[in-house]
């Protein structure tokens, strides 16, 4: 069910007491298979249809208590990130959705799904913006792990957009890049400094697609 369908099928009466609690608690729920869905079901003014949709998620959780993340031992200690975006995914305001996931030693330690702050003008714009957000999280992890004596250089960030990868290495002013917000250009700076490295990955192997 899309956000636009939820809004259209809702009556004016809101269910703030129930939906607000679920919207708040969702940020502490450690589930990867419906992270992007929760972003749709947590509006500022939840209506009856939103609450009905949340109950569907709760029924799903009740049926799948045995599903979880697997953290095997001795798989190395490398930091790796995947980034993706859903261009114009929101049918209401046409903003794109950024998705990312980070692995440490082959183990999933962080994932996110967030609507971008501004409307992207191209797929490359949306992908590059998502990669910039993913980069900031990777650098934060790098800083935290450095306190424990671990050093990471050129953290790999995998993206399924060749245009976004190319922009991170060499920004060329053309129709696809001239609208990219300046706040995203710290990604290119960190690539130049050797803190992260952008790589292309096929869509079939893009793990962050789950979060868009």
UniProtKB/TrEMBL annotation:
Lineage: Eukaryota, Viridiplantae, Streptophyta, Embryophyta, Tracheophyta
PANTHER family per record: GAG-POL-RELATED RETROTRANSPOSON, REVERSE TRANSCRIPTASE, RNA-DEPENDENT DNA POLYMERASE-RELATED
Name used for this protein in its record: Uncharacterized protein
Organism per entry: Centaurea solstitialis (yellow star-thistle)
